[in-house]
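Example 9 (inverse folding). The structure is encoded as follows.
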């Protein structure tokens, strides 16, 4: 239903939708495309990021939130949303949600802190209507290899345990934990798909194989 609404929204830019088009939505979750702020984009608009067509979907996301007024909003994006142009788009997202009368909580979370063999820091934005309880972010479960990627002014948004608290986190996962069980591939290998030729060596590898084998225990 929501997919159909979004399609209709995009088709209606020349004629505004009315209250008759509204649907009841508990939560909207999304991650507007990051091409306009990615560090790999050499032509980023630093002076006015919202004038870049690649960043327009952030505005569309907020317009849909404004129109539907869901109970909760969860938005995810790359760290560049708070790094590029002094965090222009991140500040825009926060201020827009506040303007729409949402409680807001921002969180910087690394995938490696939750059991994945990579760092991959991301920015999350929670929004909740005034009559709802603003959710907390889940606390890290794993140790990880730290990287300095968060701007100083947003460091307080890092999701983590209290400083100085004694913890027994799961050990960090490295690349070896993910791919050390893969079969060897020669220079002239002609197979697109290969079977494993040994047993999984780590718990992560066992988990990944469950997915491949249809969750057979």
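The amino acid assigned to each position is listed next.
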């Amino acid at each position: 239903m929501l997919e159909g609404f979004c399609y209709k929204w995009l088709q209606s830019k020349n004629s505004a939708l009315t209250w008759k088009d509204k649907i009841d939505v508990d939560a909207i979750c999304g991650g507007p495309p990051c091409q306009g702020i990615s560090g790999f984009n050499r032509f980023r608009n630093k002076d006015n990021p919202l004038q870049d067509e690649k960043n327009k979907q952030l505005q569309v996301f907020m317009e849909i939130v404004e129109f539907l007024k869901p109970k909760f909003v969860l938005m995810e994006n790359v760290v560049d949303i708070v790094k590029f142009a002094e965090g222009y788009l991140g500040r825009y997202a926060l201020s827009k949600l506040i303007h729409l009368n949402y409680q807001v909580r921002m969180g910087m979370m690394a995938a490696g802190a939750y059991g994945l063999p990579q760092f991959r820091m991301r920015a999350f934005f929670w929004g909740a209507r005034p009559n709802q309880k603003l959710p907390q972010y889940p606390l890290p479960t794993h140790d990880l290899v730290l990287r300095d990627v968060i701007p100083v002014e947003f460091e307080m948004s890092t999701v983590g345990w209290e400083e100085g608290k004694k913890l027994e986190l799961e050990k960090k996962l490295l690349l070896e934990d993910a791919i050390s069980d893969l079969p060897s591939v020669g220079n002239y290998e002609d197979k697109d798909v290969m079977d494993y030729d040994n047993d999984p060596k780590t718990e992560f590898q066992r988990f990944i194989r469950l997915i491949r084998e249809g969750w057979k225990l």
